Each structure stands twice: as structure tokens, then as C-alpha cells.
Amino acid sequence: MSLRKIIRIATPFALALTLVGCGDDGAGSQVVVPAPLPSTTSTATPTATATAVAYDSTNCFLQPIQGQNGANLKSFIIPDTLKLDLTRSTRFPNGRHPADPVVDILLATLLLDMSVTGQGPNTLATVPLNPPSNDKFFLLTFPFLPTPNGTPQVATGTGSNFDFRTDPDSAYVSVDRMGNPAIATALVGSSMKLTYNDDTPTGDIAGDKYYAEYISELNKLFGLIGDDVEKLQLKICATKS
């Protein structure tokens, strides 16, 4: 075959390949195909994995509470009763004035290191988040508390027949578990709440019946908010590992 004939055959074939490479759609219209872009696949920066922190709140129950002559939280909440030592200042947790911010005080003693200057039982009570006062005026006579909201069942007697200084423990009847408000709420898990609420102070004492539960639940609470408390530049009483 002559060179001229080979060129005549090869030229249309080469042209067809060129058109296809340029995007000829076979109908005479040229489709512009953009050149492939260089690979832009990037390797994602690995996210740092947070290190789990384990808390041990045992010290929170054993540390002395400021202003209570060395008494610690455990001695106030086991058994769960409102205690009164007339030789000490009568403010919660030693006794209770009607307007005492008991929940704020109790949470401060549960969460904060009482040995740190500037921290104490009233640290959280001074935070302006709660109402500044009760929504009703207190009475001037026993039992000093105003009537409750709504229409709950109330006691028929006045309680004036009790002598709190001389009557034995058997003279009194346990009607609730609010000697130290927030204990049942914050330190007793849901699986034990009914048992706890149906129990008595005598049951609390028997072998420190609920003490391990208190520690376990406070450990969980620190796991949820411990770092948040520290971000407020407060020193917590739990130890970390």
C-alpha cells in the first residue's frame, strides 16, 4: 500500500479520535469536557479524645464544715434528721431558721472544699440565682411557717404538747424525709428512693445503711458538673484520678 493511501485512511481516523477526546457527542456538536482537577482529598485531623475523669467524693462527707466546731457533713446527714446543738450558732445545718437557704448550703457542703479561703457553706447561697426571700411572710408563733400553697393535707394539732428538750425520741413520729432537704433528691438513686423514703432515721444509722449510696451518687454528680464548678474558679472537695 502506498504512503499516500495510508495517510488518506489514517487521517480521518485520527481526526475522529481527536474529536471524541474533545467531547464530540457524535451529532456534530462539540461538548467541552473540562480537564480533570488534581486530587484534593485531604486527611481529616483526628479529634482529640477526652480523657475520662473519675471522682471520689468521700472527702466531701468527712471534711469539717466551717463554723460547726469541727463537725462534718456525714455527722449531719446520718441519720437524716435536723440536729440542734444549743452550744453552737443556730443556723443550718445546726438547727434551721425559717429563711435559711438550706438547699444552697447543703449543696455547697457537698461540692466545695471547705478548707479553701473564700469558700464556705454560704458560697452558693450568695449567688443571685434564687428568689431573695420566701413568697409568704413567716408567722410569729409556732410553727412559724406560713400555710402551704394549694390544699395539701395538714396536721390537725398544733404540736404545742411536745417538749423538745425532755421528750424521748419515741414521742415523735417521722412524717417526711426532709430533715436535710436535697439528700433524697441529690444523693439517693432512683432504684432506692422508695426504700429510703419509707425508712426511718434508725435505719440510716444501722451500718451506715445509705452512706455508700450517698458517695456513689455524688461521684456521678461530680462526673456531670465537676468541671463546670471548677470553671467557676471554685475548688471542689472531691479528688480526681
Secondary structure blueprint with pairings:
Blueprint: H1 3-22, E1 55-56, H2 58-62, H3 73-77, H4 102-111, H5 183-187, H6 193-198, H7 201-205, H8 211-231, E2 239-240
Antiparallel strand pairs: 1-2
* Average residue pLDDT: 79
- Coarse morphology: elongated
Order of helices and strands: HEHHHHHHHE
User: Which stretches are low in confidence, meaning pLDDT under 50 for 5 or more residues running?
Assistant: 2-29
Give the termini separation: 90 Å
The helix-and-strand class reads mainly alpha
Instruction: Please outline the major beta sheet.
Output: 2 strands, antiparallel
Count of alpha and pi helical runs: 8
Q: Work out the radius of gyration.
A: 37 Å
The side-by-side strand order for the widest beta sheet comes to 1-2
| Percent of residues in β-strands | under 5%
How many extended strands? 2
Helicity range of the residues? 25-40%
Throw out a few tags for this protein.
two-stranded antiparallel ribbon; single chain; 32% helix; elongated; 241 residues; mainly alpha; disordered N terminus; 8 helices
Short summary of the structure?
The chain has a domain at 55-131 and 174-240.
Explain how this protein is built.
The protein is 32% helix and 2% strand. The protein has 241 residues and is mainly alpha-helical. The chain has a domain of 144 residues. The chain is elongated. The chain starts with a helix and ends with a strand.
